[in-house]
Design brief:
The two termini are 23 Å apart. The protein has 9 helices and 14 strands. With 358 residues, the chain is α+β, with helices and mostly antiparallel strands. The chain has an 8-stranded mixed sheet with strand order 1-2-10-7-12-5-4-3. A 4-stranded antiparallel sheet has the order 6-11-8-9, with no helix packed on it. Bound molecules: 2-oxoglutaric acid. The site of 2-oxoglutaric acid has 12 residues, from strand 5, strand 11 and strand 12.
Length: 358
């Protein structure tokens, strides 16, 4: 597999600076083909992903505990997405984490440019995913950083401002790793595996965790573009803190796009491709995308909980039977994510391409 190139194929344009110009029309580079535009498939207005009260996991009442565990199981099997409330992460910390990032994106451009990223590691301030020359781009900027493993965490690659930014991201990430660890246990048990199975398959203590904060500026022609193209997440599990005022995330369900209505102080959890592989596709890594709008910017924090990058990920032996043979061949996460890093978001094409020849 070819390695990632050192630099972007074209000069980087910050979407925020395009939006700030007050253009009436978006540049052609952001105009999606008709089939990929937001209105191409009707969205079901009255349906939403499940909302699960995680407090139920610690109830004294056995039936409440069992019911919560079973709701998570159903959500992973049939939706690949769910919201959690009462998850143990402090609401104040969630609000502050979102606000430090909003403040970052409103800093003067020269300060943000100091953190400009390259396709080699993607760390820093970015405006495109993928390095294909002439690609149609998404209407968003982002900031990407590593939290785990500690060997990859480098505060110098995190924003310097706002002044409490690094401290807030550190505390936020610490709490999200704890939450993800709890969910991994529930997912393992729900799959009929030992409580620690998924965590061990991810590399035990040596997992990867990284944060991408997405900034979706106002867009004068939201019907022609997307804030983030349809994709499934390549990693293990994503814990998303959505904007507290502006919806935008759409999840694909039965051919429709469902716009998620975020519950207050909830996280949106979704299964990534690596858990789809480990579960031999019992759990689904579902396609999602982001729409934008003309009147409001939007900020979201996607925290990716990933396997250690150099261990092969393959279906759990206990989930492989003569009736249900292994659907995927082993592959390390490093090999796997190269695809997205080179080509940008492309629906579910990567996890599909991994399927074993039958
Ligand atoms: O902004 C959102 O709501 C979703 C972001 C997302 O899907 C991602 O960062 O992978």
């Amino acid at each position: 597999m070819s390695s990632v190139q050192q630099d972007w194929p074209e000069p980087i344009v910050r979407v925020q600076s395009l939006s700030d110009k007050g253009l009436c029309m978006i540049p052609d580079r952001y105009v999606k083909p008709p089939d990929d535009r937001p209105s191409s498939v009707s969205s079901a207005a009255d349906v939403d992903i499940p909302i699960i009260n995680l407090g139920g996991l610690y109830s004294d009442d056995d039936s409440v505990r069992a019911n919560t565990i079973s709701q998570i199981n159903e959500a992973c099997r049939y939706w690949g997405f769910f919201q959690v409330v009462n998850h143990g992460v402090s609401p104040q910390l969630m609000d502050r984490a979102r606000e430090v990032w909003r403040e970052f994106f409103h800093l003067p451009m020269d300060l943000k440019q100091k953190h400009a990223n390259s396709p080699r590691t993607y760390e820093g301030y970015g405006s495109r995913l993928g390095v294909e020359k002439g690609a149609i781009l998404d209407w968003s900027d982002y900031y990407f950083l590593h939290y785990l493993p500690s060997s990859l965490k480098d505060h110098n690659k995190w924003p310097l401002l706002p002044s409490d930014c690094r401290e807030v991201i550190d505390e936020y990430s610490k709490q999200l790793v704890i939450l993800a660890g709890k969910l991994m246990k529930v997912l393992s048990m729900n799959l009929g595996l030992s409580e620690e199975y998924l965590q061990n398959a991810f590399g035990g203590e040596d997992i990867g965790a990284c944060l991408r904060t997405n900034f979706y500026p106002k867009c004068p022609q939201p019907d022609l573009t997307l804030g983030l193209s349809s994709h499934s997440d390549p990693g293990g599990m994503t814990l998303l803190l959505p904007d507290n005022h502006v919806p935008g995330l759409q999840v694909r369900k039965d051919g429709n796009w469902i716009t998620v209505k975020p519950a207050r102080h909830a996280f949106i959890i979704n299964i990534g491709d690596q858990i789809q592989v480990l579960s031999n596709a019992i759990y689904k890594s579902v396609e999602h995308r982001v729409i934008v709008n003309p009147s409001d910017e939007r900020v979201s924090l996607a925290f990716f909980y990933n396997p250690k990058s150099d261990i092969p990920i393959e279906p759990a032996k206990d989930l492989v039977t003569p009736e249900r043979p292994a659907l995927y061949q082993p592959m390390t996460f490093d090999e796997y994510r190269l695809f997205i890093r080179l080509r940008g978001p492309r629906g579910k094409s990567q996890v599909e391409s991994l399927k074993s020849p039958r």
